[in-house]
Fold this protein.
Amino acid sequence: DTAVSQTPKYLVTQMGNDKSIKCEQNLGHDTMYWYKQDSKKFLKIMFSYNNKELIINETVPNRFSPKSPDKAHLNLHINSLELGDSAVYFCASSQGLTAGEQFFGPGTRLTVL
Amino acid sequence: GQQVMQIPQYQHVQEGEDFTTYCNSSTTLSNIQWYKQRPGGHPVFLIQLVKSGEVKKQKRLTFQFGEAKKNSSLHITATQTTDVGTYFCAGRDKLSFGAGTTVTVRA
């Protein structure tokens, strides 16, 4: 069973479009995250949710909007996509916000043309 | 804000040799984690260090947490082709990842 799953795995779209990435974890964790990994492999935290509440919201354009319908899901919606949004987006989860192992999903490779 | 610096960015290693990657924080860390990301894969948790001066071993991997809890290192002995990938340290409480050390191995 996949612990943290993301869909889609690949996403190719045109500039200006709106797209969503879905994430689900079956580990019973309270905390979920979205990370962006750029072409240089730098991993940057975007958002963190704890028990469906937004805890961390780093400096991210407001075109990015996370939504957590329940503790097991954290989706990422991106409006008006730009070329610079091209990256790999990872969802992750953990039990607890400041300690403990983070379990990462397989990633979604977003390419904006 | 907290920043975690990691060096070197790239490490090319002859199979069988040892290498070390280093992680430094601008602030004291409550704990530090290490992850490995294989090419095309996702980060996978290796270990968490919490105590000042802590040393933990996993087979050929040795992890250290500095006395001041501002730096950490990962030392790999007798490198194998299975060690290929990018190794990240992370200041867990601020979710700050280092830039990673990408390891390639010459057979």
User: Anything to note?
Assistant: Chain B has a mean pLDDT of 95. The radius of gyration of chain B is 13 Å. Residues 43 and 59 of chain B are 19 Å apart (CA to CA).
